[in-house]
Design brief:
Length: 306
């Protein structure tokens, strides 16, 4: 559980980050209704898979934008069929006023066109018109299942000059994320980092997804915490409490300048994840009565700053 007294005094920026995360949605039936549980104007991103294709992500992003959200579609490089297809996508984004896009390699077993990965697409995009105002790219605190670490690092180094921000792949271990951040900072990463967390999701479902998308060794926490009692009760739900507790303070520590926020992979458990984020952020800044604002903690941080 949260140590509310310490947290209030030390993590105002972290609490704010948790209160306004990016929510990642999958373009499946019912998602618009589920999205209505999100705060008005929330930032939502739309995944892009070989199963649904790029246009399903763009369609949903357009609908979410029309409903008042700040919508960010993912575009998978391996699903783009040609250079003119890429220009068509850029034109469609511009026409819809979608000015922020997340470019990923994508999970297609082979490229449908000239782009084997996000890196190659970004390099080509630089020569085309209508670049979105902001471009995000993934990054990996844990090794990728198949792409060698040197190749991933080389791709990130190129993207460091071509993109505007990065979102970390789901990782269940806060120390791994924080030491990766420090290492990337030392190597000259200039992209602001959104830390990618799983949302509030059934453990078994999360374990299956983790295997399918090739997450790293930290996935073992799902096994360790799925205790006998909860299994007897017919399953248990993962909550990213331990990650939030360890990562929120980083927004007020030495790595703060490198951090942009949190990105919650909801897997469409949208209401549960949003409720968790809001409630957890609220425990961090419980808005004490006004006169508490005069008091100061031992560390000199005004109590009741939030
Ligand atoms: N973290 C995320 O949100 C997502 C991650 N992915 C996975 O990550 C991989 C890498 O994507 P990005 O981080 O955007 O980096 P990227 O696509 O820029 O890949 C890095 C380098 O590895 C090569 N590469 C990419 N996919 C490959 C594959 N499937 N097989 C062999 N080589 C490949 C690329 O040519 C590139 O030079 C994707 O292929 C996919 O498996 C896919 C979608 C979303
Ligand atoms: N390798 C990889 N690919 C991704 O697409 C991806 C990541 N990693 N890491 C973070 C998130 C997680 N994402 C996901 C994960 C699962 C589904 C998924 O299960 N979608 C469909 C099934 C699609 C299919 O079978 O191809 C679903 O029915 O839930 C979608 C996006 C997108 N992002």
């Amino acid at each position: 559980m949260w140590q509310a007294t310490t947290a209030v005094a030390t993590t105002p920026r972290g609490a704010e980050a948790l209160a306004s995360p990016r929510y990642e949605l999958i373009p499946l039936t019912g998602v618009m209704e589920q999205a209505s549980h999100l705060p008005r104007g929330a930032t939502v991103t739309v995944t892009c898979s070989p199963k649904h294709g790029i246009d399903a992500s763009l369609d949903l992003a357009e609908r979410l934008a029309a409903a008042g959200f700040h919508a960010i579609p993912h575009v998978a490089a391996r699903l783009v069929t040609s250079r003119s297809d890429l220009q068509r996508i850029l034109d469609r984004l511009a026409a819809a006023g979608l000015d922020d896009v997340f470019i990923v390699g994508g999970d297609a077993p082979s490229p449908a066109g000239p782009y084997p990965g996000g890196r190659e697409l970004l390099e080509d995009l630089d020569t085309l018109s209508r670049r979105p105002r902001r471009i995000g790219v993934p990054s990996y605190p844990e090794p990728h299942a198949t792409i060698p670490p040197e190749q991933m690092q080389a791709a990130l180094d190129v993207k460091n000059a071509l993109a505007d921000y990065t979102v970390t792949q789901i990782c269940f271990d806060a120390d791994t994320i924080l030491s990766w951040l420090a290492d990337q900072h030392d190597r000259g990463l200039r992209l602001p980092v959104y830390m990618g967390l799983p949302g509030v999701i059934d453990r078994m479902k999360l374990m299956g997804l983790a295997m399918r998308i090739g997450l790293g060794a930290s996935t073992r926490v799902l096994r360790r915490q799925a205790g006998l009692a909860s299994r007897l009760l017919g399953g248990s739900t993962y909550r990213p409490d331990a990650l939030a507790e360890a990562l929120v303070p980083a927004f007020d520590g030495p790595l703060a300048p490198a951090l942009a926020g949190f990105h919650l992979n909801t897997f469409n458990q949208i209401a549960e994840t949003a409720t968790w984020a809001e409630a957890t952020a609220a425990t961090l800044h419980p808005c004490p009565p006004r006169d508490a604002g005069q008091a100061h903690t031992a560390a000199g941080t005004p109590a009741g700053y939030y």
